[in-house]
Amino acid sequence: MTDSTVPPGRLRVLAAMSGGVDSAVAAARATEAGHEVTGVHLALSANPKSFRTGARGCCTIEDSRDARRAADVLGIPFYVWDMAERFREDVVEDFVAEYEAGRTPNPCLRCNEKIKFAALLDKALALGFDAVCTGHYATVVTGEDGARELHRASDMAKDQSYVLGVLDERQLAHAMFPLGDTLTTKEEIRAEAEQRGLAVAKKPDSHDICFIADGDTQGFLARRLGVAEGDILDEDGNRVGGHEGAYGFTVGQRKGLRIGHPAADGKPRYVLDISPVENTVTVGPREALDVVGLTAISPRWCGTPPQGPGTYTAQLRAHGGETTVTAELVAERLEVDFTEPVRGVAPGQAIVLYDGTRVVGSATIARTRRPERVGG
């Protein structure tokens, strides 16, 4: 196999520039590689704020200006494309609906699937561009048969292949990740940006959810969904507290439960289940979070779908570790068994399968299976 993070030959490349240091350096490297690069900033907020709130969020007027200044330094054309309505429908509304249904979504995956490598890529191809370049840390490799594969970044500490696991073979054929194949620290990326004269070299990274700049997800959902008081129950169905909206909880949560009295054993309790129909939240001991298997829906494959059962490693969170699983595609549903129990797995999250460093594909967790509890 050959590394094709930056494909050979001069290409017309559309560089998605968020206004941050990673996308600026990615655009710089694509330009330096000899490609004909055009920068574009996606305006994803209908009412963008002028400035970021600390190191949170993105998509502000300040970010747009930072991206434009970086493009000016690189000497490449630059445009701002308004995709606020598409982003609202495909990412924000989906995020709210998933929480309302008692699930825990990952908006970054949805944005990559629906916006950066669907809406943006389709428009880029229609305008005659060959590839879309982003500052993600991942690697695209071309096999001997010419098929392109998505692999983890060379530096596992910065790897972002999990949030790219929704990309299909067609999208990978037009994806470029110039940062993925270099063993450079973030400090070295910033040093490179400074050496190139990019003012974003010292700009803080964005964190959390870009459209919730203050980081208060529960407050954001409350404003959208309103107050819906309900009960917090223990595993036996006894009321141990109350809440103002089941949507404000996620499986595995420990803090902010506001339970009136401690458990009989004095140990902390965690969210085990969320029922939007009954508007209840069930809590219990940490060991009750153990999951031995799951069913996932809406699979997306980074190449040919796997045939028959297989053994893989799986990642369940953007910043989580790997766990060994056996998985099989059965009637368009992914049936997964863990070799060792894992904890805090929530419906709505994505499971991404790997074969070594290669991303096999991803699917959305629909339900989990817990072990039989002795005496339960």
TrEMBL record:
Chain's role: Catalyzes the 2-thiolation of uridine at the wobble position (U34) of tRNA, leading to the formation of s(2)U34.
Keyword Membrane: no
Site (Interaction with tRNA): 136, 349
Highest taxon of source: Bacteria
InterPro entries membership: MnmA-like (IPR004506), MnmA-like_C (IPR046885), MnmA-like_central (IPR046884), MnmA-like_central_sf (IPR023382), Rossmann-like_a/b/a_fold (IPR014729)
Active site, per annotation: 111 (nucleophile), 210 (cysteine persulfide intermediate)
Enzyme class: transferase
Official protein name in the record: tRNA-specific 2-thiouridylase MnmA
Region (Interaction with tRNA): 158-160
Domain spans labelled tRNA-specific 2-thiouridylase MnmA-like C-terminal: 293-365
Catalysed reactions listed for this entry: S-sulfanyl-L-cysteinyl-[protein] + uridine(34) in tRNA + AH2 + ATP = 2-thiouridine(34) in tRNA + L-cysteinyl-[protein] + A + AMP + diphosphate + H(+)
Gene3D superfamilies: Adenine nucleotide alpha hydrolases-like domains, HUPs, Translation factors
Keyword entries, A-Z: ATP-binding, Cytoplasm, Disulfide bond, Nucleotide-binding, RNA-binding, Transferase, tRNA processing, tRNA-binding
Species assigned in the record: Streptomyces tardus
GO terms for cellular component: cytoplasm
Subcellular location: Cytoplasm
Spans through the membrane: none
Sites where the protein binds ATP: 16-23, 42, 135
Domain tRNA-specific 2-thiouridylase MnmA-like central residue range list: 219-284
GO biological process: one example: tRNA wobble position uridine thiolation
Pfam family, one: tRNA_Me_trans_C
Recorded GO MF terms: ATP binding; tRNA binding; tRNA-uridine 2-sulfurtransferase activity
Record-listed E.C. numbers: 2.8.1.13
Family statement: Belongs to the MnmA/TRMU family.
